[in-house]
Specification:
Helix content: under 10%
Strand content: over 45%
Number of helices: 0
Strand order of the largest sheet: 3-4-5-6
Largest sheet: 4 strands, antiparallel
Radius of gyration: 18 Å
Length: about 250
């Protein structure tokens, strides 16, 4: 079937769920690779020309690189930026900063356009599993295995709010477009919507047997996507929690 969504900039997106995925390119192989250990985090640049890649050996190091998609070459190498595996890496909407979260409980901010030491955001007491940028690139929200979300002011580097109330680890999260709402998934099998400006819970959406990962498409009718180990992808309309699609 098809799913259509109108975006705020006037574009219409149509997904054909029957499309077949075809492998276009492999970066690295068993004999030669730009990555020194397992790849644990990925993010696209907005123009689709680069991949942000986090990798690293557990309890040894977390390595960060920017890869050119066209030829698999290294556009920027930040080196070993964490003392444990990078679990999430996200490029800011303005394209200037990469935020990484690691098993070592830290978030670090890495400049794309300058060779300067990373800034460190400290406060979580367990693995950092998810990071999302607000559309203005001034806020970051982070999800952790300490069962909380933290909201960070990028300029000051301080946590402005901690959002508790999760039964298990918070596994992924995403801001809803330009709003202050943040959607999160948790291993307690719930998808939640919170207001990042005051920490209040806006909505709880049930559904997946294991709500492990989530993302958001923010158009005129924002949608949340979530799925996990049961192999089912759920799609909701965020303003009312209505189920739009279940893909198995």
């Amino acid at each position: 079937g098809f799913l259509c969504e109108t975006l705020e900039d006037g574009r219409a997106l149509v997904w054909d769920w029957g499309n077949r995925w075809v492998l276009e390119r492999t970066i690295g192989n068993a004999n030669e690779s730009p990555f020194s250990d397992r790849v644990t985090a990925l993010d696209w640049s907005q123009d689709g020309q680069h991949l942000i890649v986090g990798s690293g050996a557990p309890s040894r190091f977390g390595e960060l690189k920017m890869i050119r998609v066209a030829d698999g070459g290294i556009a920027k190498d930040w080196g070993q930026v964490h003392s444990d595996s990078i679990l999430v890496a996200k490029l800011s909407p303005d394209g200037l900063t990469v935020a990484t979260g690691a098993a070592a409980k830290l978030i670090r901010l890495h400049r794309v356009d300058a060779d300067v030491p990373p800034r460190t955001l400290e406060g979580h007491t367990h693995h950092v599993l998810g990071v999302t940028w607000h559309d203005d690139s001034h806020w970051i929200a982070s999800a952790s295995a300490d069962n909380t979300i933290k909201i960070w002011d990028v300029e000051s580097g301080s946590a402005t709010r901690t959002i508790p109330g999760f039964g298990k680890e918070v596994t992924a999260l995403a801001f809803v477009g330009r709003t202050n709402q943040v959607v999160s998934s948790s291993a307690d099998r719930q998808v939640r919507v919170h207001d990042a400006s005051n920490g209040s819970q806006v909505r709880v959406i049930g559904g997946p047997g294991e709500a492990v990962y989530c993302s958001v498409v923010a158009g005129k009718v924002p949608m949340a996507f979530a799925g996990g180990q049961d192999g089912v992808l759920w799609i909701w309309q965020l303003d009312n929690g209505q189920v739009l699609q279940q893909l198995k």
